[in-house]
UniProtKB/TrEMBL annotation:
It catalyses: adenylyl-molybdopterin + molybdate = Mo-molybdopterin + AMP + H(+). This is Molybdopterin molybdenumtransferase. Signal peptide: none annotated. Keywords: Magnesium, Metal-binding, Molybdenum, Molybdenum cofactor biosynthesis, Transferase. Residues 175-312 form the MoaB/Mog domain. PANTHER family: GEPHYRIN, MOLYBDOPTERIN BIOSYNTHESIS PROTEIN. GO terms for molecular function: metal ion binding; molybdopterin molybdotransferase activity. Its cofactor is Mg(2+). It is an enzyme of class 2 (transferase). Pathway: Cofactor biosynthesis; molybdopterin biosynthesis. Its EC number is 2.10.1.1. GO terms for cellular component: cytosol.
């Protein structure tokens, strides 16, 4: 049974079956890379009160004429409660709370000190060098939204806004099974009939930001043994991914295994190249992706059909791939009726250009590993000439 779907149909099917994870509460010390489960509001105004932007003197400029001579009556270091200015000037540090009664600050280097007095020659205006309460953020402002990924800058912002414990989406649990009697781990002895397991590293690299990954090892093409491992792996995870055995060879067991472990197979082939074979289905809320064995085919499938929905499951709002536009530097072959993912390089100079790699052969991994982008030529477009616009995604 083969079920062929188009690229867009495949995406719609996967999208409709992808559900989001629930939340857990963590501290911001563990928050980098996590996805917010709720909008985050400021707990207080920032600045928290009117604060001095500099080391200087807090003064009241109402009714003051310049040059002005004022007595230093007190000091206001950062972190101390608000002082009161009734007359003269208060020596204030950067970040110090502007005293009640003061309405401007003048920098140390802009006054002349004369004993307990300062002389201000240049006129100072009301509000000078004061950071006013709430001018950056007001209590209750939503500053970060549900579904945003927290990078270090946003984690620091949460700290700034007074948040310590936060709700984030639970991480997606993903199991990876690599299949194929020919596959050898990098540390295993090489043999002429074998191939080294690069697919594991492609998947780990792409998934790591969004998921907790369990690797169930590499399985020889033995149906009974494979079923046991796959069955356990789908129980233990939200998403199960397999590599290899997705097409039509005698030992291409993925489809059979998926059926046997209770996956409702939705499709087995798409109209993309490289990577036509993709066995996708669900077991209730769990998703199964049977990716093709060739690393280039696996990578393209993962970028196009897997990662966006892992991001969705992880709670990320903007989970779909965003394709940008570039100008082709050379004629680039593609076939109508098929979506071609062309490996190559994007260069950003005066304009953004895409140059296809020297080969587009599926079995050639070097050419995709040394590329920084995939151009996508959709099914109704066909071959494009140099100078034409193409969509691309960075990889
Ligand atoms: N008669 C047909 N043969 C093939 C078809 C077809 O439609 N009819 N489709 C071809 C297409 S398209 C692709 S893509 C490949 C992929 O199919 P499989 O998923 O069955 O891939 P395998 O046979 O398991 O592996 C292919 C090849 O990839 C290398 N490989 C496998 N695993 C790894 C790994 N973990 N790390 C690195 N490289 C790996 C290895 O060289 C395998 O020989 O099928 C075509 N055939
Ligand atoms: O589509 Mo397959 O990936 O040609 O090799």
């Amino acid at each position: 049974m083969f079920i062929k779907v188009t690229r867009n149909e495949a995406k719609e099917i996967i999208d409709s079956l992808t559900s989001q994870k629930y939340y857990e509460t963590i501290t911001i010390d563990e928050a980098e890379g996590r996805v917010l489960f709720e909008d985050m509001k400021a707990k207080f105004n920032i600045p928290e009160s009117d604060k001095s932007a500099v080391d200087g003197y807090a003064i009241n400029v109402d009714n003051l004429t310049f040059p002005a001579k004022l007595k230093i009556i007190d000091e206001a270091p950062a972190g101390e409660a608000q002082k009161e200015l009734k007359e003269g000037a208060i020596f204030i540090m950067t970040g110090g709370v502007v005293p009640k009664g003061a309405n401007a600050v003048v920098r140390i280097e802009d006054v002349e000190k004369d004993g307990d007095y300062i002389v201000i020659k240049k006129p100072v205006k009301k509000g000078d060098l004061i950071n006013f309460e709430g001018e950056e953020v007001k209590t209750g402002d939503v500053v970060l939204k549900k579904g945003e990924i927290l990078d270090y800058k946003k984690v620091a912002l949460l700290a700034n806004l007074g948040h310590y414990q936060i709700k984030v989406f639970k991480k997606v649990k993903i199991g990876i099974v690599v299949t194929g009697s020919e596959v050898k781990e990098p540390f295993e002895a090489l043999d002429k009939a074998g191939v080294k397991n690069s697919n594991l590293y492609i998947l780990k690299g792409l998934l790591k930001p969004y998921a907790d990954i369990t690797y169930y090892g590499k399985l020889p093409d033995n149906l009974d043994e494979m079923i046991k491992v796959f069955k356990n792996a789908i129980e233990e995870n939200d998403i199960l991914i397999s590599s290899g055995g997705a097409s039509k060879g005698k030992y291409d067991f993925t489809k059979e295994i998926a059926k046997q472990i209770g996956v409702d197979i939705k499709f087995t082939t798409t109209n993309i190249r490289p990577g036509r074979p993709l066995i996708f289905g669900n077991k209730d809320k769990k998703l199964f992706f049977g990716l093709p064995g060739y690393p280039a085919a696996l990578l393209v499938n993962a970028v196009e059909f897997l990662i966006p929905y892992v991001k969705k499951a992880a709670g990320i709002v903007n989970y779909q791939n965003e394709y940008k536009k570039a100008v082709l530097t050379t004629k680039t072959k593609a076939k109508e009726g098929r979506v071609d993912f062309i490996r190559g390089n994007i260069e950003c100079d005066e304009k953004v250009t895409f140059t296809a790699a020297y080969t587009q052969q599926t079995s050639n991994y070097l050419s995709i590993a040394l590329s920084n982008a995939l151009a996508v030529i959709d099914e109704n477009e066909g071959t494009k000439e140099a100078g034409e616009i193409v969509e691309y995604i960075l990889i």
